Amino acid sequence: MILVTGAAGMTGCHLLDVYGEDELYRTDLSESPGIDRMDIRVLDQVMQMVRRVRPHLILHLAAETDVDRCEKEPDHAFLTNYVGTLNVTLACQRYGVDLVYVSTAGVFNGHKDGPFTEFDTPAPVNIYARSKLEGEKVVQTLHPRHYIVRAGWLFGGRERDKKFVGKIASLCLNGCRDGEIRAVDDKFGSPTYARDFLRMVRHLSGTGYYGLYHVVNHGVGSRYDIAVEIARILQVGTRVVRTSSDAFVLPAPRPKSEFARNYKLELLGLDHMQQWRDALNDYLVSWTVPSKVAALA
């Protein structure tokens, strides 16, 4: 049995695409059909749940991923991303459970021409990335049977996709002011389809190759590149306009580059991730085709 935290989130939306329902025990901060309530910030709740479920693996998806909220509310960020991860790690330690901890390729400072690998030194530029890095440290310190997996710019979850891809796709499909979208061309990263990410995590977590890994779709793109690709795939007339990040005043600084390479997976012959443009196409087709079919019915 795999116990999942944060199962109601964007990545958790794809769990049943990748795992059989009978393999999973899903939890989240809020109870909903098929998902039990568990607050990772409360140690007793975590211990009781793990003792009752007796999983062989915990897939720790729960996190505060709103970068700007983390910057404005650092106590909330560290309570969720550090203390919550500490509690999950202690439960894994006590009951002998393997742990998958999802981190971010945003832990680097962005000052590198090429892709960041697992052998580069983290230097976070915002509170969100710092809190996720502290989670990595506690996992590495307390529990050797771990897989730390750093995702890139995650997308997925359809209606739960509140991040960049979901916002741009919604604007393209529902119309936007003046028929154009502004997107920055001076921030770069590795787009990562949550479904592909979970498939790779499922395979990796069965190998016994414990450690730290980057798990991103191949290639690099700017926010502008991604927006252009979304408009092309959706075949809409939306015009995407280049702009700089100076045009958007945000609470949290972002690194110039979050471009990552799955170097350790490559070395082990395990890197099965596809190119990000192919992954984006798969996602948008899976999201939009059912709604178009329903509209014609």
Structure, explained:
The chain is α/β, with parallel strands linked by helices and about 300 residues long. It has helices at about 15-20, 45-55, 65-70, 75-95, 125-140, 165-175, 195-205, 225-235, 265, 275-295, and strands spanning about 1-5, 25-30, 35, 55-60, 100-105, 145-150, 155, 180-185, 190, 190-195, 210-215, 220, 240-245, 255-260. It has a 7-stranded parallel beta sheet with strand order 3-2-1-4-5-6-11, sandwiched between helices. Strands 12-9-14 form a 3-stranded mixed beta sheet. The model is unreliable at about 290-295 (pLDDT under 50).
Task: Please write out the topology.
Blueprint: E1 2-5, H1 15-18, E2 24-28, E3 35-37, H2 43-53, E4 57-60, H3 67-72, H4 74-95, E5 98-104, H5 127-142, E6 146-151, E7 153-155, H6 164-174, E8 180-184, E9 188-189, E10 191-193, H7 194-204, E11 211-214, E12 221-222, H8 223-234, E13 239-243, E14 257-258, H9 263-267, H10 276-296
Parallel strand pairs: 1-2, 1-4, 2-3, 4-5, 5-6, 6-11, 7-10, 8-13, 9-14
Antiparallel strand pairs: 9-12
Helix pairs in contact: 2-4, 4-5, 6-8, 8-10
